[in-house]
Structure formats: structure tokens, C-alpha cells
Amino acid sequence: MFSIHDEALVKDFLKQNKFPPFRYAQIENAIYKNFVSDYWDIQTIPKELREKLNNNFFYYSLVTDHIVTSDNGQTTKILFKTKDGLFIEAVIMRHLTGRNTLCVSSQAGCPMACTFCATWKLWLQRNLEFYEIIEQVYYASELLNKEWTILRNVVYMGMWEPFLNYENVKKSIEIICDQKKLNLANRRVTVSTCGIIPGINKFGDDFPQTSLAISLHAPNDEIRKSIMPVDLTYNLDKLMKSLDLYVEKTNKRIFYEYIMINWVNDNIKLASELGELLKGKLAHVNFIPYNSWEWTSGSYKSTPRFIIEKFQDILEKYGVPSTIRTTMWDDIDAACGQLASKK
Ligand code: SF4
After folding, report:
1. Would you place residue 155 in the very low, low, confident or very high pLDDT band (cuts 50, 70, 90)?
2. pTM here?
3. Which ligand 1 atom is at minimum distance from the Cα of 336?
4. What pLDDT, on the 0 to 100 scale, is given for residue 332?
5. pLDDT tens, residue by residue, 84-111
6. Of all protein residues, whose CA lies closest to atom 4 belonging to ligand 1?
7. Residues near ligand 1 with C-beta < 6 Å?
8. What value does the mean pLDDT take over residues 18-26?
9. Which ligand 1 atom is the nearest neighbour of the CA of 161?
10. 184 Cα to the center of ligand 1, angstroms
């Protein structure tokens, strides 16, 4: 059995079975535009083709193990189980503005070992196939469709490092942004990396319209190294040079994620260091209050709000825009990897 999301395979199958090429457009339209999730319901294709598709192509390889929605109804977390028994997560965030965002996973587990993160406790189990990423998007789109609303943004910020699974991530973005398929504008897709420089370089070439976010979390190597081992390979100097090159190529603003952990990376003098690092660049900083979870909650706590606001004020003096991200999900373990780690 193969994935129905593999266009090349489906087209090849049609050819081998002597169906005319236009049948692919009919299948594509039924799946991605009308969300028909049973081949028998695709009325535009002959019965014989429906039967053959049913015997050879699956819609979903993932099964839903657990689905939980926060008390305020804004956040839904879906825990999927892969065919080989691994757990991965996706999170739907319904913003009050009506903008729905899906956070997808691109790997099961993560090898990057950031000290504040739930995901790496799973280690890297394997890279996800492109269709396993698409299935997360498709599932969320179907669900939102039933709520009479649509998916507006996709962020690769779940269990990951996306740039360690570059080819599958690339193929999935192509399907998400294909006008005949999920049809999201490129700028509505954001890929977040902890700073894998070869991936950043390729991404700038392949997707100059797609948004890039960097998990920065510290403005100097000393602190960054202590919480993000990636800095041992790609230090800040190398990282910032590659990002300057990315901006030169794309002219796109980069989002910098800065998780605020009390007594770790929130000393007020670091706000000025951050300002120095980013001043004059096409940058936007997202401050994320740390969402403590049981394996680290003894040692890590979120920075008090007034300190985060001071960071914002100082950045403003450097001309660097920033926002404080609202936490929408404390009651459902929605930070990346929390639910899968529990499993
Ligand atoms: S923060 Fe991101 S890169 Fe770091 S371990 Fe967690 S999932 Fe991996």
C-alpha cells in the first residue's frame, strides 16, 4: 500500500492501469478540495478505479491515539501513532482573531538535546515521511472544516528538527502550498530551526517566500551552549552570518524565538546583548514564557511577566520589534513533545 499523497506514484499507477491522466485531477480535487476521505465517495471516477485505489493507496498511515482540547476550546492537541508504533504530536491553535494555526511534527523525537525541552527525552526515533507530515495537516484541515472554518497557518515547530529531515519537509511544504492541493500561501508556512546552517542555506534557495524562525534562546554562546548543544557545532557567529545571507537572498524578516527561563537566560543585561545582536536586522523576536513540565519543572521556571516586558522595552530602544507569546495550553501539556513523552 502507498500514500495517496504521493502524486508521482498515483500518476504512475493510473498510467499502468490504463486510466486517462485527467483522472488524477479528479482524485486530487476530491481529496484536497472536498475532503472526501473515502474512495467510494468519489463520484467523479469509475467504480473500477475506486476499487483499485482502495486496494493500493491509503489516506492515513497515522491513527489518532488521543485528542484533547483545552478548557477554553482554543487549543486541540492530537497524539498520533505511526504504523511502527511511535507517538507524534500536532497542535491546533484557534486564535481569537479567527486565524487557525497548526503546529506539526517532522521527526519522532529529537536528537538536539536542548535542556529545557520535552521532546529530546524521546531521543530521535526516526524521521517522518513526507506523507506523515501531510496527514497531520490533512487531519487538522478536515477537523476545522467540520467547524466551518479553515486552516490558515502551518508551523513546523512540533517534534522536530525539520532541517535534519530536509527532503521530507521540503516535499510536504510543496504539497501544502500547491494551489491544486492544500493551497496555503507560502508566507503562511513557517519552519523553525534550532540553527542547522546547511538547512538554512538550502531553505533560502528552495523557499524564498516561506517564513523562517530561529530558536535563539540566548544572545551569547556561553548561555546558548549551556542549554542548546547545537551551539557547539553552529555557534552564534556562524549562525548570524548564515542568517544575514538568508536575508540577502530572500529579503524576509526572520522570527527569533526566545524562551524565557527564570535565572537561566533572563538576566536583564542579556536584553541589551540581544538588542546589540539584532539591531539593524530584519528581525522580530517572540518571547515565550517557559511552560514547565514535570521532568524539568524542579529546575526550570518561567520568567515573571514584568521581566519579559522589560526585555521588550529594551529591545524597542534598539529598534527591534517583539511580542510576548500567550500560552494557550497549560491544561493539556501542549508544549512540544509533552504528551508523547508521557506516552
Ligand atoms: S527545543 Fe527543539 S531542537 Fe531542542 S530538543 Fe526540543 S524539539 Fe529538539
Report:
1. very high
2. 0.92
3. 7
4. 47
5. 999 999 999 998 888 999 999 998 888 8
6. 114
7. 110, 112-114, 117, 119-120, 160-161, 194, 336
8. 97
9. 3
10. 26
Q: Which atom, in ligand 1's list, is nearest to the CA of 110? A: 8
Beta bridge partners of 76: 69, 92
- Catalytic residues, which ones? 89, 336
Q: Whose CA is nearest to atom 6 of ligand 1?
A: 117
CA of 113 relative to ligand 1 center, distance in Å: 6
Confidence of residue 113 (pLDDT cuts 50, 70, 90): confident
Q: How far does the centroid of ligand 1 lie from the alpha carbon of residue 160, in Å?
A: 6
Q: How many A from CA of 277 to the centre of ligand 1? A: 22
Sorted by where each starts, the structural domains of the chain and their CATH numbers stand as 2-58 (1.10.150.530), 63-342 (3.20.20.70)
Query: Which of 121, 160, 191 maximizes ligand 1 atoms within 8 Å of its Cβ, making it the mutation to test the pocket?
Result: 160
